[in-house]
Specification:
The structure holds two protein chains of two kinds. By secondary structure, chain A is α/β, with parallel strands linked by helices. Chain A has helices at about 20-35, 55-60, 70-80, 95-100, 100-110, 155-165, 175-190, 210-215, 225-235, 255-260, 270-280; strands at about 45-50, 65, 85-95, 115-120, 165-170, 195-200, 215, 245-250. Chain A has a single domain, classed as Rossmann fold. Chain B is an alpha/beta fold. In chain B, the strands form three sheets. In chain B, strands 6-5-4-1-3-2-14-7 form an eight-stranded mixed beta sheet. A seven-stranded mixed beta sheet of chain B has the order 9-8-10-11-13-12-19, with helices on both faces. In chain B, helix 7 (about 185-195) runs parallel beside helix 12 (about 320-340) and helix 9 (about 235-245) packs parallel to helix 10 (about 255-275). At the A-B interface, strand 1, strand 2, helix 3, helix 5 and helix 11 of A face helix 7, helix 9, helix 10 and strand 15 of B.
C-alpha cells in the first residue's frame, strides 16, 4: 500500500508538549522516506510495550503488536524469526524496557537480533502518574519515593555495549533532524539497533532546560571503536551534571541472530513421512 | 496371562533409563505391550535411579508393586527395593557392587576388563544375564541392541554375550507374537502430535518433565521445517510464541508449573489479543520447586483459572501415548481455528513414561473443517477483530499487501485500536466467549470423555491424565467402570453425564491432595462419593490402587 495516511483515526491522548509527538513525527517521516526508497510499509511491524510511549501502536497506521508491559522484545524476535522479511521496530519505555523487561533487552543485544529498539526514555513513569524509573537520578522525588530515590540510575548505553549491541545511539526529542537520522540509520542497520531517546515528560519530568544546557553532538567520533564508544557512553552517567553526548556511539556489522538460526535449514522431510520414520525407528 | 515386571536400579550415571528402555524393547520384540516408569532424583551423578519395566499381553500404563526380575547394579537397589521382592523374584546383580544380593551374580568388572569396555557398559552385562535368565533368545538381543543402541552396539553385544553365557535360564518369558509396536515416551508422543498438527515453532525454557520434549523437537528441527528456540526465560518464551503466531506461524511452548507461573501474563494476553498458542504443562510435585523429578496432578485448578480476565481456553489431559499424540495434534489445530490458548496438561508419569504406541487407537479424531462463512478479507478494510457469527475473526498476517494487522493487549475495536468504550467492551467480551461456545460444540463431537472396563458397573473410578492406565487395570481386576475426561475446558458436561449413566458410586483417583477434578465436577453438580488421593510424588502401582479402592468400597 503506498501513500497511505500514516495516522489512524484514534484520538491522541498524549499531554500537550509530550516528547512522544517528536518521536511519532520522526517515525512517520522515516517510514515515509523508506517507502519512497522502495520498502513496502506492509512489511513493517511496530511492537510497543505499555506506557505513554506505547500509544504509538494505536496512532500509527501500520502493522502493530501492542504488547504487555516490558514485553516488546520477545514478541519482536518471534515476529522476525517467523518472517525474516519483516522490518520490526520496538518502541519501548524506560520503565517498560529497563525495569520490567531488562532481561529481554540484554538477550536481544547478545543475539544481535535484526530489530530496532527505540527507548522513549523520559526517566519517569507517566501513565502510572510519576514514579522513578531505572534511569531517574539519585534522589528523584516521585510518588513512590517522596524522600527521593536511594539508588543510582543505570547507564543503558554502557549496558548495551557490554551486552553486544551492534548499533548504539542516543537521541533527544528536541533535536529532530538528528533523531530522524538516528531512527533511519537504526532501521537500515542489519543487526540489533538500540536508540536511547531522551524524551521530556511535560507533566512529571520536564527536563527541557536541563537537556538543552547539557547536550552536544558527537563529532569526529569513531563509531567502529568499542573502547571509544564506551568512553563516550560513560561520560554522562544519567546522574551527574556532565555533558550529554548525542548521536551514534557505536556501529559494527556482525552476523545476525536470524542469519545463525537459519544457517542450517532442515532437510524438509514431509511431516507425515518423518512421523512414520520416527515410529519405525522406535520399534 | 503373561505379565512380567522387571526392576533395574543403580546410581545416577549408570545409564539406568537407557538400560530400562533396552529391556522394554526386548519385551517389545517378544510381542508384549510395554510400559516403563523411570524414577530418579534431581541430580546428575550419584543418587539412586531405578526403572520399572512391565510387559503384558494387554495395553498397560502402570507399574506393579512386585518384581519378577530385579536387576541390581549396586547395593542400594537391594536395600531400597526389598518391598518389591517376592520369594520367587529372580535377582541378577553386579557381583562386585551389589554385595548384599543373592541370586545370579554377574562378574561385571571382570567382563568389562576382558572386553576393554567402559564402566557405563556394565548395564549391558546385566541385561545379557537377565536375558539368559528369562530365556530370551540371543538373536532378539542382537536385534534390539543393533536397532536401539546408537553407539558401540557391537562392543555392548560382546559384553552382554559374556554375561549371557555365564547365566542360567530360570524363568522363561514366552514369545507371544511376532508383532511389535513403536515404544515412545509421552513427551515424544506429544512432539509427534504437535508436528502432525502443523506446528511451525516450539519455544521452551528447560524444565522437568518437559525438557525432553524440547530436546526431541530440537532434533526434529533438523528434518521438518520447525523453528525451535530456547530463550531467556518463560516470560520470553510465551511472548515469543505470540510473536510467531501473530506473524502466521503455529507456535507451542512447553514447561511445568513453575514456568507456567511466569507465562500467565502471556496467557491472558493471548486471550485478549486472540492469538493462538499451545502450552504443554507437565505437572510435577509442588508447591514451588517441590520434588522436581516426581509426579503430581496439582495444577488442574491453576491451568483452569490462570491469567487475569475471562477468556475461553482449551485444556486437554491425555492419559497415554496415543492420546498424547492425538490431542497434541488437535490442540494445535483447535487453538489455531478458534484463535485461543490450548493447554496440554501432562504429568511426569505421562511425559517421561514409556509406552507401546498402537496406531489402531488413533481412529475417529478429526476436527471439524474450518468454520464456514467467515471469509478472509484483506485490504484496506481489514479489521483483525471483525465481528462474525462465530466470534472468530478471519486472520491476516503482517506482510499481506494493503493490509494493516493490529493486535493489542487492550480492549479494542474491530480494527485493533484500543478503546475504553463501555459498549464495545461488552461486545468484544461476548465475541471471545462466543468462540468458547463454538469450541464447546466441537469438543462435544470429539470424544472428550472416555469410558473403560465394565461399562454397566454401578461403581466407577474417575481418573485423569496418567492415572488412566492404573485405573483401567484396577477396574479390570475389580469389575468396575472407568470414566476419564480428556477435555477439562470447556467442560464436556453432556458427555460426562452420559458416561455417568447408571453410576451409583463414583470414586475419584488423583495425584493431589485437594481432589481437584472432584471439585471441578462438584462445580458442575456432580458429586464424587469417595476420593483416593496420592501426593507423595510417586505414581500409583496397580496393587496399591487396588487396595485403596477396595478399602473405600468396603
Amino acid at each position: 500500500m503506498t501513500g497511505r495516511n500514516l495516522i489512524t483515526p484514534a484520538k491522541n491522548t498524549w499531554c500537550p508538549g509530550c516528547g512522544n509527538f517528536s518521536l511519532q513525527f520522526a517515525l512517520k517521516s522515516v517510514l515515509g522516506e523508506l517507502e519512497q526508497s522502495g520498502t513496502s510499509l506492509d512489511d513493517v511491524v511496530l511492537v510497543t510495550g505499555i506506557g505513554c510511549h506505547a500509544k504509538m501502536a494505536d496512532y500509527l497506521n501500520i502493522n502493530s503488536f501492542y504488547s504487555i508491559h516490558g514485553r516488546t522484545i520477545p514478541a519482536a524476535i518471534g515476529i522476525k524469526l517467523a518472517n525474516p522479511r519483516l522490518k520490526v521496530i520496538c518502541c519501548a519505555g524506560d520503565g517498560d524496557c529497563y525495569a520490567e523487561g531488562l532481561d529481554h533487552l540484554i538477550f536481544a543485544a547478545k543475539r544481535n537480533a535484526d530489530i530496532t529498539v527505540i527507548i522513549h526514555n523520559n526517566r519517569v513513569y507517566g501513565l502510572t502518574t510519576g514514579q522513578y524509573t531505572p534511569t531517574s537520578p539519585l534522589g528523584f522525588r516521585g510518588r513512590s519515593t517522596p524522600d527521593g530515590t536511594t539508588e543510582l540510575p543505570i547507564n543503558p548505553l554502557v549496558l548495551m555495549l557490554a551486552s553486544g549491541a551492534t548499533f548504539v545511539a542516543r537521541g533527544y526529542t528536541r533535536k529532530m533532524e538528528q533523531l530522524r537520522s538516528l531512527v533511519k540509520q537504526g532501521l537500515l542497520h542489519r543487526g540489533f539497533s538500540f536508540i536511547d531517546v531522551l524524551q521530556i515528560c511535560a507533566t512529571y519530568n520536564n527536563m527541557t532546560d536541563y537537556y538543552n544546557e547539557h547536550v552536544y553532538n558527537l563529532k569526529d567520533h569513531d563509531t567502529s571503536g568499542f573502547e571509544t564508544a564506551l568512553i563516550k557512553a560513560r561520560e554522562w552517567d544519567y546522574n551527574g551534571d556532565d555533558r550529554i553526548a548525542l548521536g551514534l556511539f557505536y556501529q559494527q556489522v556482525m552476523p545476525t541472530y536470524e542469519d545463525r538460526v537459519f544457517a542450517h535449514p532442515p532437510d524438509n522431510t514431509d511431516r507425515q513421512k518423518r512421523i512414520e520414520e520416527i515410529l519405525q525407528e522406535k520399534m | 496371562m503373561n505379565d512380567i515386571s522387571v526392576l533395574i536400579g543403580g546410581k545416577a550415571g549408570d545409564g539406568i533409563n537407557s538400560a530400562g528402555l533396552t529391556i522394554a524393547h526386548l519385551f517389545n520384540h517378544l510381542g508384549y505391550r510395554v510400559y516403563m516408569y523411570f524414577d530418579y532424583p534431581s541430580l546428575i551423578k550419584g543418587g539412586h535411579n531405578f526403572a520399572i519395566v512391565r510387559a503384558s499381553e494387554h495395553k498397560i500404563g502402570a507399574h506393579r508393586e512386585t518384581a519378577d526380575f530385579l536387576l541390581a547394579l549396586n547395593n542400594d537397589t537391594i536395600d531400597v527395593h526389598t518391598g518389591m521382592m517376592r520369594p520367587d523374584t529372580e535377582i541378577i546383580y553386579d557381583a562386585g557392587n551389589a554385595t548384599r544380593a543373592t541370586g545370579t551374580p554377574v562378574p561385571v568388572s571382570g567382563i568389562l576388563i576382558e572386553e576393554n569396555a567402559p564402566l557405563i557398559m556394565g548395564n549391558s552385562a546385566i541385561i545379557g544375564a537377565f536375558a539368559k535368565t528369562a530365556g530370551i533368545q540371543w538373536d532378539v538381543i542382537e536385534e534390539v541392541f543393533s536397532r536401539h543402541l546408537p553407539k558401540e552396539a557391537a562392543k555392548n553385544l560382546s559384553v552382554a554375550r559374556k554375561a549371557y553365557d555365564v547365566a542360567q535360564t530360570k524363568r522363561v518369558v514366552p514369545v507371544i507374537g511376532p508383532g511389535h509396536l513403536p515404544v515412545i515416551t509421552g513427551n515424544e508422543a506429544m512432539g509427534l502430535g504437535l508436528i502432525h498438527g502443523g506446528l511451525d515453532a516450539y519455544i521452551s525454557y528447560p524444565m522437568t518433565p518437559t525438557s525432553n520434549l524440547l530436546h526431541f523437537l530440537a532434533e526434529q528441527a533438523l528434518h521438518v521445517p520447525i523453528t525451535v528456540v530456547h530463550p531467556e526465560n518463560e516470560i520470553g518464551v510465551i511472548i515469543m510464541a505470540l510473536g510467531f503466531a501473530y506473524a502466521g506461524k503455529k507456535a507451542a511452548v512447553g514447561t511445568s508449573g513453575g514456568g507456567f507461573c511466569l507465562m500467565t501474563e502471556g496467557l491472558s494476553f493471548a486471550g485478549q489479543s486472540e492469538i493462538p498458542v499451545v502450552i504443554v504443562v507437565g505437572q510435577r510435585t509442588g508447591p514451588s520447586t517441590g520434588l522436581p523429578t516426581y509426579t503430581g496432578q496439582s495444577e488442574l485448578h491453576f491451568v483452569l483459572h490462570a491469567g487475569q480476565g475471562e477468556f475461553p481456553r482449551l485444556i486437554v489431559a491425555p492419559g497415554d501415548a496415543e492420546e498424547s499424540y492425538v490431542w497434541s495434534s488437535l490442540a494445535v489445530q483447535l487453538a489455531w481455528k478458534y484463535q485461543i490458548a490450548a493447554i496440554i496438561l501432562g504429568d511426569k508419569t505421562l511425559n517421561e513414561g514409556t509406552y507401546s504406541f498402537d496406531r489402531k487407537e488413533l481412529e475417529g479424531y478429526r476436527p471439524d473443517p474450518e468454520i464456514p462463512g467467515e471469509e478472509l478479507v484483506n485490504g484496506p478494510a481489514y479489521g483483525r477483530y471483525r465481528l462474525t457469527g462465530s466470534g472468530v475473526s478471519p486472520p491476516a498476517f503482517p506482510g499481506t499487501p494493503d493490509t494493516v494487522v493490529k493486535i493489542t493487549s487492550y480492549t479494542h475495536d474491530e480494527t485493533g485500536l484500543s478503546t475504553e468504550d463501555a459498549g464495545i467492551s461488552v461486545i468484544m467480551a461476548e465475541k471471545r466467549m462466543k468462540k468458547g461456545a463454538r469450541l464447546f460444540d466441537e469438543i462435544d463431537r470429539l470424544g472428550a470423555v472416555r469410558t473403560y472396563g465394565d461399562r454397566s458397573s454401578p461403581v466407577a473410578l474417575l481418573a485423569w491424565g496418567s492415572n488412566k492406565g492404573v485405573a483401567c487395570e484396577v477396574a479390570g481386576l475389580l469389575g468396575l467402570r472407568v470414566i476419564q475426561p480428556i477435555v477439562l475446558s470447556p467442560f464436556p458436561l453432556r458427555q460426562m453425564k452420559e458416561a455417568l449413566s447408571g453410576v451409583k458410586r463414583l470414586v475419584s483417583v488423583e495425584d493431589n491432595m485437594d481432589g481437584q477434578l472432584g471439585s471441578l465436577l462438584a462445580s458442575r453438580g456432580i458429586t464424587v462419593d469417595n476420593q483416593v488421593l496420592k501426593y507423595d510424588g510417586r505414581p500409583f502401582s496397580v496393587g496399591e490402587l487396588r487396595g485403596k479402592v477396595m478399602e473405600v468400597l468396603k
